[in-house]
């Protein structure tokens, strides 16, 4: 069982938005992004948040500003990575149940590996996962299939007997490239609108995941 992280296992949006706003505060613009209204952009990564902010305060400066501020954002985010972040309800109970039923569990995320390791450690759940593949673990990132394959094999699993749990089109495309089922969460940043991506299953609550996993891999 391979999990995405941001927007799938944990709601990290508020801490991500705060890190982007730290950059704009330093530029004299104050809080440009809203932690609620701009939450969806947060799950598309630091560069997407910076681009959105620049589109509001300095569109012509975005081309130079985004790469310049991205390291600042990462540093700020790393300092306060778990201030507001919360695991979704029932997530770790589901992971424990899956492990009890013989599943290996791992994470494949487009968050830099070091930040993902730090976040999971601070949340006290890193040891629950057999492997973690981040955006920079390999030369490519999702939706390229290589990170997913590594997340499965490093956890001791078999690709043809694996499932990806995610929340975005990137996760859907990764699963399709690997030829495995994709389950999208209906409680993430886009809610049940992810059904439009035509996943193999839509997850309403983590309590349903263990039985759903066994149904998808009979």
UniProtKB/TrEMBL annotation:
Superkingdom of origin organism: Bacteria
* Catalysis performed (reactions): 2-phosphoglycolate + H2O = glycolate + phosphate
| Gene Ontology biological process terms, A to Z | DNA repair
Q: What class does this enzyme belong to in the EC scheme?
A: hydrolase
CC per GO annotation? cytosol
Its pathway is: Organic acid metabolism; glycolate biosynthesis; glycolate from 2-phosphoglycolate: step 1/1
A GO MF label? phosphoglycolate phosphatase activity
Q: Does the keyword S-adenosyl-L-methionine apply?
A: no
Which UniProt keywords are listed?
Hydrolase
Which Pfam families does the UniProt record give? HAD_2 (PF13419)
* EC code: 3.1.3.18
Q: Which SUPFAM superfamilies match?
A: HAD-like
- Keyword Chloroplast included in the entry's annotation: no
Q: Which PANTHER family match?
A: PHOSPHOGLYCOLATE PHOSPHATASE
What protein family is recorded?
Answer: Belongs to the HAD-like hydrolase superfamily. CbbY/CbbZ/Gph/YieH family.
Q: What is this protein called?
A: phosphoglycolate phosphatase
Q: What is the lineage of its organism?
A: Bacteria, Pseudomonadati, Pseudomonadota, Alphaproteobacteria, Rhodobacterales
């Amino acid at each position: 069982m391979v999990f995405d992280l941001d927007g799938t296992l944990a709601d990290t949006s508020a801490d991500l938005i705060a890190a982007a706003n730290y950059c704009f505060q330093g530029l004299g613009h104050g809080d440009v992004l809203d932690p609620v209204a701009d939450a969806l952009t947060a799950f598309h990564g630091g560069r997407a948040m910076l681009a959105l902010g620049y589109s509001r305060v300095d569109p012509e400066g975005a081309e130079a500003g985004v790469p310049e501020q991205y390291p600042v954002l990462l540093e700020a985010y790393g300092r306060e990575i778990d201030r507001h972040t919360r695991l979704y309800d029932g997530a770790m109970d589901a992971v424990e149940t899956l492990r009890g039923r013989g599943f290996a569990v791992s994470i494949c995320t487009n968050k830099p590996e070091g930040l993902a390791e730090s976040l999971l450690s601070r949340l006290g759940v890193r040891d629950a996962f057999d492997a973690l593949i981040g955006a920079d673990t390999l030369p490519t990132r999702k939706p390229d299939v290589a990170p997913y394959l590594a997340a499965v094999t490093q956890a001791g699993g078999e690709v043809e007997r694996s499932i990806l749990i995610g929340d975005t089109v990137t996760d859907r495309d990764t699963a399709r490239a690997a030829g495995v089922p994709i389950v999208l969460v209906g409680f993430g940043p886009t809610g049940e609108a992810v059904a439009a991506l035509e996943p193999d299953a839509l997850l309403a609550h983590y309590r349903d995941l263990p039985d759903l996993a066994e149904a998808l891999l009979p």
